[in-house]
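Hey, sorry to bother you again with one of my protein questions. There's a protein on my desk that I can't quite get my head around. No rush at all, and the record is pasted right below.
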Amino acid sequence: MGSMSDESTNNGLSVPGETRGKVINCKAAVVYGPEEPLVIEEVQVAPPQKMEVRIKILYTSICHTDLSAWIGENENQRVYPRILGHEAAGIVESVGEGVVDMKEGDHVIPIFNGECGDCVYCKSEKTNLCGKYRVNPMKSVMDIDGKPRFSTPDGKPIYHFLSTSTFSEYTVLDSACVVKIDSKAPLKKMSLLSCGVSTGVGAVWNTANVHSGASVAIFGLGAVGLAAAAGAKSRGATRIIGVDINKDKFIKGKAMGMTEFINPKDLNRPVHEEIKELTDGGVHYTFECSGNLDVLREAFLSTHDGWGLTVILGIHPTPRMLPIHPMELFDGRKIVGSVFGDFKGKTQLPHFAEECMRGVVNLDEFITHELPFSKINEAFQLLIDGKSLRCVLQL
């Protein structure tokens, strides 16, 4: 795991073709049980099979979804041993039979919400889901043979996560879950587009289609919420209200374009009452990024009746249902969920990457820490303690 330049052309790869078709021995962070420390150890990574791609991961970061999986919040996802991780960027090492849109040496981003390009969903302009490769947190093996591509040196299986498993020096993905980007794009920054930034900005641009002059309230100021703020600023929103119980997030929020902040702990009334008074009846759009149903209700009620729209971005693992009475929808407020910011990964993400390179969204603001891959447990703790937005790990 030596030092590598982010702008290097070969980024530490072997001579092209040297490892093609062979099992690769490399380091990976393996989790063996809920909340157990990740173990950096040697694993074997099999060659890609039909319509699969093996990539060398150069940068990866930790998202709250990784944290939830590590904690084991959903019992149905407790598959071990497993390699987590889904935000990353790297280089194509080799491709399997049938892959024609990528080749060895291409710069790529893994995505958890794939796009095959051929199914009825992919051909529809109304959704970014794919009939076969949409986000599936239960999936832990590859489709073609029902087996993982990871194993221990003695041949025992190690399972996949979110179709990506980026906490490894090498990983194998379905080609539908790999996006080729401009080779000039700085991979360290591009790694953020695998999940959080794309999810937040896309929810503003694609799902809500926020208009110039709009008022917006964002509940939960992690990376996704701050990305939503950056997206709203780029669209010309005039009021961007951040809501969070961690006052330290307000400093970063201001840099992202937020104009006002509300800490629910400082209020003696519900947040939605405060927002309605501040905005003459409520904001045009709210974005719920906390994964808390009580917060979701506050976000919903904070929109203006007649035209308000609430977009759900937070992951809600509990079995509780929506805290909204059906008749409340007759006041003209709407509520909708957004997966991966409604970006179609393979067809739309390359253009978004180009826009980020031009500075439409400042990706530098999201990288609060950088560590070597060997310190991945420290990176997890930074996220748990609320001290980091994204800690980028260099492999």
User: Anything to note?
Assistant: Residues 1-12 have pLDDT under 50 and may be disordered. The domain at 200-339 is CATH 3.40.50.720 (Rossmann fold).
